[in-house]
Write a structure and sequence with these properties.
Blueprint (H helix, E strand, L loop, with lengths): L2 H15 L38 E5 L35 E5 L9 H7 L4 E6 L1 H15 L8 E3 L11 E6 L4 E7 L4 E4 L11 E8 L3 H4 L4 E5 L14 E5 L2 E3 L4 H19 L6 E5 L11
Length: about 290
């Protein structure tokens, strides 16, 4: 398996193992998650011999739990995500696996991805969905490392929920796995002078987050945004939408989200190298909250 296919397959497995819906346009094995899905005319047909891993269903597998990719002893797992240690008794969710239509999904191979990522950078940027996937990938990759002290945050920052970014270095492979917290992927700042008192903050739809300069040159970029684009986290908190020096208080959240993604798309096409970087983008994950006591 070449480097391109390994990246594409490994990150598909990551997204599926996180129980998140994988939502990319139709792809072939060589162009998956590079730049084609950013173009309007990029819809591609699947070669007969290829397998579209994004189409399939969740199936119950009694033996799947015994082949878990990592457990709660992973040192990079946030305490809030340690389900068993926090009292969750039902582990049936671990026995569901993704079964693509017409083919099988290979098991994730930590050593293989580490080797193919040597001297590289893997970047997650966005909301908590990306944070979860970042932590999950860290734990998955530890299975290919014998000395965990060779994995560390380059600035000495602890792995905890905070505003900012975290860069984990895998010293043996000279690679980093990075997370940048930017829930809107856009700049959030103070409103222009003489704005209405109702405007506490503005989301600048035509400006990508300041962290974007740090994303340039990464080999793999996984962007997540969507869950913060709702009235509770925007308009109801006094956060309105700004383009240039003008704040639009009547713009809907959906329209603002659409415009912000156009800004992100323009930035990606103008700043990332299609011969080097793979791009994944996902928005909303399924909501499965239940009021159970």
């Amino acid at each position: 398996m070449n480097r391109e296919s390994a990246y594409a397959l490994s990150f598909l497995i990551l997204l599926l193992s996180s129980l998140f819906y994988f939502n990319l346009v139709t792809f072939d094995q060589q162009t998956l998650s590079r730049f084609d899905f950013l173009y309007n005319n990029s819809q591609k047909s699947i070669p007969i011999e290829a397998c579209d891993y994004s189409k399939g269903q969740w199936v119950w597998d009694e033996n799947y739990y015994s082949h878990q990719l990592y457990d709660e002893n992973c040192p990079f797992l946030d305490p809030g995500f340690r389900c068993r240690q926090n009292g969750r008794n039902n582990e049936g969710f671990r026995k569901w696996r993704w079964q693509p239509d017409g083919c099988d999904l290979p098991r994730f191979n930590a050593s293989d991805l580490l080797e193919k990522s040597r001297n590289g950078r893997i970047v997650f940027a966005g909301d908590s969905v990306g944070r979860n996937q970042w932590e999950s990938l860290l734990c998955m990759l530890t299975k290919g490392i014998s000395n965990l002290s060779k994995i560390y945050e380059v600035n000495g920052s602890p792995i905890s929920k905070h505003k900012g970014y975290l860069v984990m270095r895998f010293e043996e492979y000279n690679m980093t796995v990075e997370y940048y917290r930017a829930p809107f992927l856009s700049i959030i700042g103070r409103p222009p002078r003489n704005s209405s008192n109702d405007i506490k903050m503005t989301i600048r739809l035509d400006e990508l987050h300041w962290y974007c300069n740090k994303w340039v040159g990464a080999d793999v970029l996984v962007f997540n945004s969507g869950h913060w684009w709702n009235s509770d986290k925007t308009i109801k908190t006094g956060s309105y939408f700004q383009e240039g020096g003008k704040v639009n208080m009547s713009m809907t959240v959906n329209e603002a989200f659409r415009r912000s993604l156009q800004t992100w798309k323009s930035w990606a096409l103008g700043n990332l190298n299609p011969l080097r970087s793979f791009i994944f983008f996902r928005s909303y994950s399924p909501v499965h909250y239940r009021q159970v006591h």
